[in-house]
Amino acid sequence: PPPPPPPLPPPLGVCRLLSSVMSGTESHTDREEDYRFLHSMLMEKKLHLLFKIHERLKRFEKRSPIPVQEHAASLASDLAEELMYQGWRDEVKELVALFSKPHFKGLLSVHDAVAQRDFEPTLPPVPDDVLEEDEDSVKIVSLVKTKEPLRRTCGSVFRVYFQHSEGLIHEGDELKEVNGISLEHRKPKEILPLLACSQGDITFKIIPASSKEEMSSNKKKLFVRALFDYDPNEDPTVPCKDATVSFKRGDVLQIVSMEDDTWWQACHLADSSNRAGLIPSQQLHERRVALQRPKALFKPQRVKPPGLSIPFPAGLRRSFRLGRKSSRAREAARSRRWSAGVHGSLRPPTYIEVIPYRRDSKDRQRLVVLVGPSGVGVNELKRRLLISDPDRYGVTVPHTTREKRRQENEGMDYHFVSIHMFEEDILNHRFIEYGRFRGHYYGTSLDSVHRVMAEGKVCILDVHPSKIKHVYTSEFKPYVVFVKPPRIEELRLTRRRAKFISDEEDTNPVRIFSEEDFEDMIELAETMENHYGHLFDKVIVNGDVALAFRELKAELEKTEEAEVQWIPAEWIRTSPTAARRSFSHLTGWI
Ligand SMILES: Nc1ncnc2c1ncn2[C@@H]1O[C@H](COP(=O)(O)OP(=O)(O)OP(=O)(O)O)[C@@H](O)[C@H]1O
């Protein structure tokens, strides 16, 4: 018997959804005309075709196709020419007729333009003589015409550039040159024809009015630390790739203009050429993240909240937090997290205003805060740091209300205090973090941090990220390191023999990691990054512990030795007026 026909592909996602919406809607619609209206709208053939195209494109997008060749149009015309001499079989005739159709030619030309990325404008090089001039006082503005192949959007980049030129050219600016032609001693009526006859790109050399003002008023420069990676090559919406600045999380940028709502202009501090380019504005990045967020909402997964609501015992191994929660508590945490996400109470990290800090030899060392999901290895890294250089690093001594054990020493293992004293200290906000465990209080006080810092040591503090706010001041100048778990495959490999302490009552408190512990660790890390990522100065992935430790140590030493460290401006700002300066909206979310 002939083989059965191959199964039909399943109906396309959105189209199938639309059909099922209609079949389920009838019973919920009171009015016949409403139903008909909805039916005609959702069953509209054009709408379905659009969705089909959309889905097909989406599928291709995932495959990230690369063009096989960039000159399809000339290949087709060469082929048509060859075929002329190949005799006139029906198939050949059909192919030649197809090649000569204007739509087909148009399609191939668009294909080639896309394959050659011919639609992106290229910026002309900066004129040589600018390099010799004072760059602060001369500005080069290029209006670049697009080569975009689609007629409908032809000139869009040009328009964008005119639009951006609103932020680049100002009243009072002095025009020095147009396309290399000096405008000195020329009257305005002589300049206009020069502009009118320019073909293609126009380059202005300008002395900005503001630079004169700035010099006289000594206006403060604005610096930000980027809290996300930006690669213009991955950004399809960027108006002109040549005019952008790429950056990595943690880079310090000087903001040159924030006049455009979508694209700010900034330059890298580390870049010696100091040339400004476009970067996504805070608003643009927030909007993008908001658009991506719904994806996360549909993830069917187990989720833990940012920081457990149950206070945990500071000063004890944080491993007690792993596996502590009952399944009911997990459920509650999950729904809390969802509602926080749905209601959009989180603002994604974008930029944070920073100022330079030059540490004086008399200044205390900055506090180092290590954070990370329970079990990731924060204690392990802290332990290694202490052993590596006990004179340089120190840790706090926690307070507790439990009885002192025989082998313990007051002020070395714990500060043993009464319940009354402990509660009084809670009321007086003396604790960075505290909790109750098996009926006893444990806590880490601000004073204990002061004590370590007063010894001239770098105090290593290990707290939940929600507690960073208690030390997020110019007094402590915390340097926050987030210890992140690697991918689950690497966790399985590296933690095969690792043990941690769990307080699950019915199991052995010291046990090896389970698959669930790894999943919890990764999810908690993701939640922590989403909620507190803007506070992290450095992210260290703890896969191989020796490598992670080396990276951490090198990073701390580099920061300590750096001539200039960049700290959040809000630590130093004291007057509310100063805080309300133009950039105040950036500090709102801290
Ligand atoms: N990269 C690593 N590779 C293998 N084992 C590791 C690694 N990092 C940490 N460990 C081990 O994992 C266990 C848990 O680490 P650690 O106690 O430092 O975690 P933690 O983040 O402080 O967690 P908790 O807050 O629950 O105490 C320890 O046995 C530690 O030695």
Automatic annotation (TrEMBL):
Q: Quote the protein name from its UniProt record.
A: MAGUK p55 subfamily member 7-like
What does the UniProt keyword field contain?
Answer: SH3 domain
Q: Which residues does the UniProt record annotate as the domain L27?
A: 65-122
The UniProt entry, under CDD domains, shows: GMPK, SH3_MPP
Record keyword Magnesium present: no
Report domain Guanylate kinase-like positions.
Answer: 365-557
Task: Tell me the superkingdom of the source.
Answer: Eukaryota
Statement: the UniProt record of this protein carries the keyword Manganese: no
Q: Which InterPro entries match?
A: GK/Ca_channel_bsu, Guanylate_kin-like_dom, Guanylate_kinase_CS, L27_C, L27_dom, L27_dom_sf, MAGUK, P-loop_NTPase
Query: What PROSITE patterns is this protein classified in?
Result: GUANYLATE_KINASE_1 (PS00856), GUANYLATE_KINASE_2 (PS50052), L27 (PS51022), SH3 (PS50002)
- Organism of origin: Seriola dumerili
SMART domains membership: GuKc, L27, SH3
Q: Cite the Gene3D superfamilies for this sequence.
A: 2.30.42.10, L27 domain, P-loop containing nucleotide triphosphate hydrolases, SH3 Domains
Pfam families (alphabetical): Guanylate_kin, L27, SH3_1
User: Can you tell me which family this protein belongs to?
Assistant: Belongs to the MAGUK family.
**Boundaries of each SH3 domain copy?**
219-289
